[in-house]
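> example.struct
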Protein backbone atom coordinates (compact mmCIF):
# COMPACT_ATOMS: atom_id res chain seq x y z
CA UNK A 1 0.00 0.00 0.00
CA UNK A 2 1.27 3.47 -0.91
CA UNK A 3 2.59 5.60 1.93
CA UNK A 4 1.70 9.21 1.07
CA UNK A 5 2.97 12.47 2.63
CA UNK A 6 1.66 16.01 1.96
CA UNK A 7 3.90 17.82 -0.53
CA UNK A 8 3.72 21.44 0.69
CA UNK A 9 4.87 20.92 4.32
CA UNK A 10 7.93 19.10 3.00
CA UNK A 11 8.57 21.95 0.54
CA UNK A 12 8.32 24.47 3.40
CA UNK A 13 10.88 22.44 5.35
CA UNK A 14 13.12 22.49 2.27
CA UNK A 15 13.00 26.30 2.28
CA UNK A 16 13.54 26.52 6.05
CA UNK A 17 16.57 24.20 5.95
CA UNK A 18 18.00 26.36 3.17
CA UNK A 19 17.40 29.62 5.06
CA UNK A 20 18.99 28.36 8.27
CA UNK A 21 22.04 26.94 6.48
CA UNK A 22 21.16 23.34 7.25
CA UNK A 23 21.07 22.74 3.52
CA UNK A 24 24.16 24.04 1.70
CA UNK A 25 25.71 24.04 -1.75
CA UNK A 26 27.95 21.12 -2.68
CA UNK A 27 31.00 23.27 -1.90
CA UNK A 28 29.70 24.01 1.61
CA UNK A 29 28.59 27.59 0.91
CA UNK A 30 25.18 28.91 1.89
CA UNK A 31 22.48 29.33 -0.72
CA UNK A 32 22.08 32.93 -1.95
CA UNK A 33 19.04 34.92 -0.63
CA UNK A 34 17.80 35.45 -4.21
CA UNK A 35 17.58 31.68 -4.73
CA UNK A 36 15.62 31.31 -1.49
CA UNK A 37 13.26 34.05 -2.64
CA UNK A 38 12.73 32.10 -5.85
CA UNK A 39 11.83 29.03 -3.77
CA UNK A 40 9.05 31.05 -2.14
CA UNK A 41 7.74 32.11 -5.57
CA UNK A 42 7.64 28.45 -6.64
CA UNK A 43 5.74 27.52 -3.48
CA UNK A 44 3.21 30.28 -4.16
CA UNK A 45 2.71 28.92 -7.67
CA UNK A 46 2.27 25.38 -6.33
CA UNK A 47 -0.32 26.49 -3.78
CA UNK A 48 -2.24 28.46 -6.41
CA UNK A 49 -2.03 25.58 -8.88
CA UNK A 50 -3.24 23.00 -6.35
CA UNK A 51 -6.16 25.22 -5.31
CA UNK A 52 -7.32 26.30 -8.76
CA UNK A 53 -6.74 22.98 -10.54
CA UNK A 54 -7.97 20.84 -7.64
CA UNK A 55 -4.77 18.82 -7.91
CA UNK A 56 -3.69 17.03 -4.73
CA UNK A 57 0.04 17.50 -4.14
CA UNK A 58 1.67 14.61 -2.28
CA UNK A 59 4.88 12.59 -2.17
CA UNK A 60 4.94 8.83 -2.15
CA UNK A 61 7.54 6.59 -0.51
CA UNK A 62 8.60 4.58 -3.55
CA UNK A 63 10.92 2.16 -1.76
CA UNK A 64 8.35 -0.66 -1.46
CA UNK A 65 6.13 -0.11 -4.47
CA UNK A 66 5.38 -3.01 -6.78
CA UNK A 67 5.59 -2.60 -10.57
CA UNK A 68 1.92 -1.64 -10.92
CA UNK A 69 2.19 0.98 -8.17
CA UNK A 70 5.41 2.36 -9.68
CA UNK A 71 3.65 2.80 -13.03
CA UNK A 72 0.74 4.54 -11.29
CA UNK A 73 3.14 6.90 -9.50
CA UNK A 74 5.00 7.60 -12.72
CA UNK A 75 1.73 8.55 -14.39
CA UNK A 76 0.83 10.81 -11.44
CA UNK A 77 4.03 12.86 -11.81
CA UNK A 78 3.74 12.92 -15.58
CA UNK A 79 0.25 14.36 -15.14
CA UNK A 80 1.55 16.85 -12.55
CA UNK A 81 4.25 18.11 -14.92
CA UNK A 82 1.82 18.58 -17.80
CA UNK A 83 -0.84 20.30 -15.70
CA UNK A 84 1.53 22.51 -13.64
CA UNK A 85 3.49 23.76 -16.65
CA UNK A 86 0.20 24.28 -18.51
CA UNK A 87 -1.04 26.32 -15.54
CA UNK A 88 2.05 28.56 -15.67
CA UNK A 89 1.83 29.05 -19.43
CA UNK A 90 -1.84 29.96 -19.08
CA UNK A 91 -0.80 32.64 -16.56
CA UNK A 92 1.35 34.18 -19.31
CA UNK A 93 4.72 32.80 -18.20
CA UNK A 94 7.47 31.97 -20.68
CA UNK A 95 9.93 29.09 -20.98
CA UNK A 96 12.67 30.51 -18.73
CA UNK A 97 10.28 31.16 -15.83
CA UNK A 98 8.51 27.81 -16.23
CA UNK A 99 11.88 26.07 -16.53
CA UNK A 100 13.17 27.71 -13.35
CA UNK A 101 10.08 26.51 -11.45
CA UNK A 102 10.65 22.96 -12.65
CA UNK A 103 14.37 23.19 -11.87
CA UNK A 104 13.55 24.17 -8.27
CA UNK A 105 11.14 21.24 -7.93
CA UNK A 106 13.85 18.88 -9.18
CA UNK A 107 16.23 20.34 -6.58
CA UNK A 108 13.55 19.73 -3.95
CA UNK A 109 13.27 16.06 -4.99
CA UNK A 110 17.04 15.68 -4.67
CA UNK A 111 16.88 17.31 -1.22
CA UNK A 112 14.30 14.74 -0.10
CA UNK A 113 16.42 11.90 -1.41
CA UNK A 114 19.87 13.07 -0.25
CA UNK A 115 19.12 15.10 2.89
CA UNK A 116 16.00 13.38 4.21
CA UNK A 117 16.61 9.81 2.97
CA UNK A 118 13.15 9.91 1.40
CA UNK A 119 12.77 7.41 -1.45
CA UNK A 120 11.18 9.66 -4.06
CA UNK A 121 11.62 7.27 -6.97
CA UNK A 122 13.48 9.80 -9.16
CA UNK A 123 10.29 10.65 -11.04
CA UNK A 124 11.59 14.22 -11.36
CA UNK A 125 13.90 13.02 -14.12
CA UNK A 126 10.86 13.13 -16.41
CA UNK A 127 10.55 16.89 -15.80
CA UNK A 128 12.02 18.74 -18.75
CA UNK A 129 13.63 22.10 -17.88
CA UNK A 130 12.95 24.45 -20.77
CA UNK A 131 15.25 27.38 -21.54
CA UNK A 132 15.01 30.24 -23.96
CA UNK A 133 17.47 32.76 -25.37
CA UNK A 134 16.36 36.19 -24.18
CA UNK A 135 17.05 39.17 -26.44
CA UNK A 136 20.09 41.09 -25.18
CA UNK A 137 19.52 44.83 -24.85
CA UNK A 138 22.63 46.95 -24.31
CA UNK A 139 23.59 50.58 -24.74
CA UNK A 140 25.48 51.35 -27.93
CA UNK A 141 28.87 53.05 -27.46
CA UNK A 142 27.25 56.32 -28.59
CA UNK A 143 24.42 56.03 -26.05
CA UNK A 144 26.91 55.27 -23.27
CA UNK A 145 29.10 58.24 -24.26
CA UNK A 146 26.01 60.46 -24.19
CA UNK A 147 25.25 59.47 -20.59
CA UNK A 148 28.90 59.92 -19.63
CA UNK A 149 29.67 63.27 -21.21
CA UNK A 150 26.47 65.26 -21.86
CA UNK A 151 26.45 67.73 -18.95
CA UNK A 152 23.34 69.54 -20.21
CA UNK A 153 21.39 66.30 -20.02
CA UNK A 154 22.80 65.53 -16.57
CA UNK A 155 21.75 68.93 -15.23
CA UNK A 156 18.22 68.39 -16.58
CA UNK A 157 17.77 65.40 -14.25
CA UNK A 158 16.52 65.72 -10.70
CA UNK A 159 19.21 64.86 -8.07
CA UNK A 160 17.86 61.36 -7.37
CA UNK A 161 17.98 60.46 -11.07
CA UNK A 162 21.47 61.93 -11.40
CA UNK A 163 22.65 59.48 -8.75
CA UNK A 164 21.04 56.54 -10.55
CA UNK A 165 22.55 57.73 -13.84
CA UNK A 166 26.00 57.80 -12.21
CA UNK A 167 25.53 54.31 -10.78
CA UNK A 168 24.35 53.04 -14.16
CA UNK A 169 27.34 54.54 -15.99
CA UNK A 170 29.71 53.10 -13.37
CA UNK A 171 28.08 49.69 -13.81
CA UNK A 172 28.18 49.90 -17.61
CA UNK A 173 31.92 50.58 -17.33
CA UNK A 174 32.93 47.99 -14.73
CA UNK A 175 30.39 45.24 -15.51
CA UNK A 176 29.30 44.94 -11.88
CA UNK A 177 26.05 43.25 -10.94
CA UNK A 178 23.40 45.21 -9.03
CA UNK A 179 24.11 43.06 -5.96
CA UNK A 180 27.79 44.03 -6.03
CA UNK A 181 27.67 47.69 -6.99
CA UNK A 182 25.56 48.75 -4.00
CA UNK A 183 27.92 46.97 -1.61
CA UNK A 184 30.95 49.00 -2.72
CA UNK A 185 32.72 51.03 -0.04
CA UNK A 186 35.89 53.12 -0.02
CA UNK A 187 37.81 49.90 0.71
CA UNK A 188 36.98 48.70 -2.81
CA UNK A 189 38.70 51.67 -4.47
CA UNK A 190 42.51 51.81 -4.57
CA UNK A 191 44.78 54.66 -5.71
CA UNK A 192 48.07 53.19 -6.92
CA UNK A 193 50.89 55.07 -8.72
CA UNK A 194 48.53 57.71 -10.06
CA UNK A 195 45.94 55.22 -11.29
CA UNK A 196 42.63 54.22 -9.72
CA UNK A 197 41.48 50.61 -9.41
CA UNK A 198 38.31 48.82 -8.40
CA UNK A 199 38.96 45.67 -6.38
CA UNK A 200 36.27 43.31 -5.16
CA UNK A 201 35.10 39.72 -4.85
CA UNK A 202 31.77 39.06 -6.54
CA UNK A 203 28.99 38.18 -4.14
CA UNK A 204 27.52 35.72 -6.64
CA UNK A 205 30.52 34.04 -8.28
CA UNK A 206 33.21 34.69 -5.60
CA UNK A 207 35.54 35.75 -8.43
CA UNK A 208 38.08 38.46 -7.51
CA UNK A 209 38.38 41.43 -9.89
CA UNK A 210 40.97 44.20 -10.09
CA UNK A 211 39.84 46.72 -12.69
CA UNK A 212 41.53 49.97 -13.72
CA UNK A 213 39.02 52.83 -13.75
CA UNK A 214 38.77 55.51 -16.43
CA UNK A 215 38.76 59.18 -15.44
CA UNK A 216 34.98 59.63 -15.65
CA UNK A 217 34.39 56.62 -13.35
CA UNK A 218 36.87 58.08 -10.85
CA UNK A 219 34.96 61.38 -10.94
CA UNK A 220 31.72 59.51 -10.24
CA UNK A 221 33.38 57.82 -7.26
CA UNK A 222 34.72 61.12 -5.91
CA UNK A 223 31.31 62.75 -6.29
CA UNK A 224 29.63 60.08 -4.14
CA UNK A 225 32.55 59.16 -1.88
CA UNK A 226 31.32 58.72 1.72
CA UNK A 227 33.24 60.01 4.75
CA UNK A 228 33.95 56.56 6.18
CA UNK A 229 34.92 53.12 4.91
CA UNK A 230 31.74 51.35 6.01
CA UNK A 231 29.05 53.40 4.26
CA UNK A 232 28.17 52.17 0.73
CA UNK A 233 29.48 54.55 -1.94
CA UNK A 234 26.18 54.73 -3.82
CA UNK A 235 23.81 54.44 -0.87
CA UNK A 236 20.89 52.05 -1.07
CA UNK A 237 17.88 51.60 -3.33
CA UNK A 238 15.51 48.74 -4.11
CA UNK A 239 15.93 46.90 -7.40
CA UNK A 240 12.38 47.86 -8.38
CA UNK A 241 12.99 51.60 -7.89
CA UNK A 242 16.39 51.37 -9.58
CA UNK A 243 14.89 49.82 -12.71
CA UNK A 244 11.97 52.26 -12.65
CA UNK A 245 14.41 55.19 -12.50
CA UNK A 246 16.47 53.79 -15.38
CA UNK A 247 13.41 53.73 -17.61
CA UNK A 248 12.72 57.39 -16.76
CA UNK A 249 16.34 58.32 -17.51
CA UNK A 250 16.24 56.45 -20.82
CA UNK A 251 13.03 58.16 -21.87
CA UNK A 252 14.43 61.57 -20.92
CA UNK A 253 17.59 60.79 -22.93
CA UNK A 254 15.50 60.04 -25.99
CA UNK A 255 16.28 56.33 -26.09
CA UNK A 256 12.76 55.67 -27.36
CA UNK A 257 13.39 53.66 -30.52
CA UNK A 258 10.87 50.83 -30.93
CA UNK A 259 12.54 47.45 -30.47
CA UNK A 260 11.33 44.00 -31.47
CA UNK A 261 10.92 41.60 -28.57
CA UNK A 262 10.28 37.87 -28.77
CA UNK A 263 9.87 35.16 -26.12
CA UNK A 264 9.34 31.41 -26.20
CA UNK A 265 6.53 29.21 -24.92
CA UNK A 266 7.11 25.46 -25.11
CA UNK A 267 9.93 26.09 -27.55
CA UNK A 268 7.81 28.19 -29.90
CA UNK A 269 8.85 31.78 -30.52
CA UNK A 270 6.22 34.43 -29.88
CA UNK A 271 6.66 38.06 -30.84
CA UNK A 272 5.69 40.40 -27.99
CA UNK A 273 3.51 43.24 -29.19
CA UNK A 274 2.98 46.59 -27.55
CA UNK A 275 0.06 46.81 -25.14
CA UNK A 276 -1.22 49.39 -22.68
CA UNK A 277 0.88 47.75 -19.94
CA UNK A 278 3.89 46.73 -22.00
CA UNK A 279 5.95 49.15 -24.07
CA UNK A 280 8.43 48.09 -26.75
CA UNK A 281 10.60 51.18 -26.61
CA UNK A 282 14.29 50.75 -25.88
CA UNK A 283 14.03 52.82 -22.69
CA UNK A 284 11.32 50.50 -21.36
CA UNK A 285 13.77 47.59 -21.58
CA UNK A 286 16.45 49.32 -19.51
CA UNK A 287 17.22 47.52 -16.25
CA UNK A 288 20.06 46.63 -13.90
CA UNK A 289 21.00 43.70 -16.17
CA UNK A 290 21.92 46.18 -18.88
CA UNK A 291 24.93 47.44 -16.90
CA UNK A 292 26.86 44.17 -17.05
CA UNK A 293 25.73 43.38 -20.59
CA UNK A 294 26.75 46.82 -21.84
CA UNK A 295 30.18 46.63 -20.21
CA UNK A 296 30.96 43.24 -21.76
CA UNK A 297 29.71 44.05 -25.26
CA UNK A 298 31.35 47.50 -25.28
CA UNK A 299 34.74 45.98 -24.45
CA UNK A 300 34.28 43.41 -27.22
CA UNK A 301 33.01 45.94 -29.76
CA UNK A 302 35.94 48.26 -29.07
CA UNK A 303 38.42 45.46 -29.68
CA UNK A 304 39.49 44.03 -26.31
CA UNK A 305 40.53 40.36 -26.69
CA UNK A 306 37.94 37.85 -25.52
CA UNK A 307 40.16 36.22 -22.89
CA UNK A 308 40.72 39.57 -21.17
CA UNK A 309 37.00 40.43 -21.22
CA UNK A 310 36.27 37.01 -19.70
CA UNK A 311 38.78 37.73 -16.92
CA UNK A 312 37.19 41.09 -16.13
CA UNK A 313 33.62 39.75 -16.25
CA UNK A 314 34.41 36.53 -14.36
CA UNK A 315 33.24 34.17 -17.13
CA UNK A 316 34.95 30.81 -17.56
CA UNK A 317 36.34 29.72 -20.94
CA UNK A 318 33.46 27.25 -21.26
CA UNK A 319 30.74 29.78 -20.44
CA UNK A 320 27.91 29.54 -22.97
CA UNK A 321 26.36 32.77 -21.69
CA UNK A 322 29.51 34.72 -22.57
CA UNK A 323 29.33 33.45 -26.16
CA UNK A 324 26.01 35.25 -26.51
CA UNK A 325 27.80 38.54 -25.88
CA UNK A 326 30.41 37.64 -28.51
CA UNK A 327 27.69 36.93 -31.08
CA UNK A 328 25.88 40.16 -30.22
CA UNK A 329 29.08 42.19 -30.52
CA UNK A 330 29.87 40.55 -33.86
CA UNK A 331 26.40 41.38 -35.17
CA UNK A 332 26.88 45.01 -34.09
CA UNK A 333 30.28 45.19 -35.83
CA UNK A 334 28.81 43.60 -38.96
CA UNK A 335 26.10 46.28 -39.05
CA UNK A 336 28.61 49.09 -38.60
CA UNK A 337 31.02 47.80 -41.24
CA UNK A 338 28.12 47.32 -43.63
CA UNK A 339 27.45 51.07 -43.36
CA UNK A 340 31.04 51.70 -44.40
CA UNK A 341 30.77 49.29 -47.35
CA UNK A 342 27.61 51.03 -48.57
CA UNK A 343 29.48 54.34 -48.64
CA UNK A 344 32.40 52.71 -50.44
CA UNK A 345 30.11 51.33 -53.12
CA UNK A 346 28.59 54.73 -53.85
CA UNK A 347 30.40 56.57 -56.63
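> example.seq
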Amino acid sequence: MKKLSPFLPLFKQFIKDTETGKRLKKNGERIQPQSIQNYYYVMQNLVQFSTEAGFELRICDASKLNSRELLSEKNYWKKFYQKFTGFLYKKGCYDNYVGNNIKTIRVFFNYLKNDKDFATGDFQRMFYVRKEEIDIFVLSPDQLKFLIHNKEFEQSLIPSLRRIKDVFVFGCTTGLRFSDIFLLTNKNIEHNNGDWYLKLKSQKTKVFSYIKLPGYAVEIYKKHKPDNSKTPIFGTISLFNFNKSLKQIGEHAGFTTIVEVSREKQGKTKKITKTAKSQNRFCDKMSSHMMRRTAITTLLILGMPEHLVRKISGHSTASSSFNRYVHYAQAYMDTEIEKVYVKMEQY
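> remarks
The two ends are 86 Å apart (CA to CA).
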